[in-house]
Specification:
The protein has 19 helices and 3 strands. By secondary structure, it is mainly alpha-helical. GO terms for molecular function: carboxylic acid transmembrane transporter activity.
Amino acid sequence: MDRPRAVDVQSFINDHPFSPFQWFIFAMCFVIVLLDGFDTAAIGFIAPSLPGEWGVSRSALAPVLSAALFGLACGALASGPLSDRLGRRTMLLGSVLVFGVTCLVSAFSTSIGELTWLRFVTGVGLGAAMPNAVTMMGEFCPDRNRATVINLMFCGFPLGAACGGFLAAWMIPHFGWRSVLVLGGATPLVLAVPLFLRMPESARYMVANHRPAAHIRAALARISPDAAHAQVFTMSEHVPQTPGKGLGVVLSPMYFVGSVMLWVAYFMGLVIFYASINWMPLLLKDSGLTASSATLISALFPLGGVGAVLSGMLMDRFNANRIIAACYALTALSVWLIGQAAGNVALLVLVVFAAGVLMNTAQSSMPALAAAFYPTQGRGTGVAWMLGIGRFGGIAGSFLVAELTRRHFTFAGIFATVAVAGLLAGAALLVKQAARPKPQAGAPAAAKTESFGH
């Protein structure tokens, strides 16, 4: 009697060309990340309309502006363990529905307090969507170009934020501020239809969690019909295994140091990002530039995400920790140079753009790094917790500059202080590289192989 044909899931994905089905998964995840960028930025575009609508002061807008940031952190932290228990598909669909429904409902808010709570829940959905999109895409990618594809997917975030600005500038004068939230809520609900009908569960997740072989076969057959006759599926992990799943993996002795270093690096990166985008226009204006020049120069910083795809290609070929650490170190240098360029507009334009390219390249590369670091049983939690804990860096960055201005730091002193965060992020990744988990004595380098079949 012939033995059942066994198929290693990742080897199968590696051995076949990137299929139209995988491009469909990429398109779905790209649009989710784009909508994340749009909905995260939406409140900033509609905020100027709220004082006139409800008769509130500008200071009263602080809670509604920060509510989504806290929701993003909470959503990411909660969704990771759930993703490793319930599945990537379930969490992805659920999170899209949550932020779609609540964003749509928030368009009909009747008070600033009501809008604040709805923005928080919208943030929870957004915070859960991003890490699950990363994990799902990563588990359907060949090893040879995983970082490139995930970084390309992350280009959707600044694109979504930019589109939100252009659309809001046209929609608010014609249809009012509520129309932006209607668009931001209705689009995810439309997206949920093909997600529900066409998006499968991750094949790696199904093998790791002993799902029926027929379901695994059906998912892989959409990549190539070669999977149609397979009866047994195996999964080789290229990182060391540890008992448990979810947080049990992320906080295990084998992965703990690396997990903390990922958190530190992403946190410090967002300290720089939010300190810059929230305060740079005001700081440049105070340094002597006109308001319009300060705004235009500051706008170059978030536009600088063009290096993410190149970084992904380098990560797929060389040591990813060192590639991103170098980007953070160069970010620190360029942010410091912003402080030295006051009064020289041409130099200021150059260094702000360079800082934006380096900063966004490093930050956009971190999810791919986290996805490659953890085994399947802890990948969802690992990616989500890095993104969730990192969100507090965004809050810290805004408060840091506020405190520095209160203490009357100079323009150069503020940017020199913010630049230190880039050095800390780079150092954290070098520590992660040095403390990378190693197989236990007697275990093979590719750790254990999970298998399932009839």
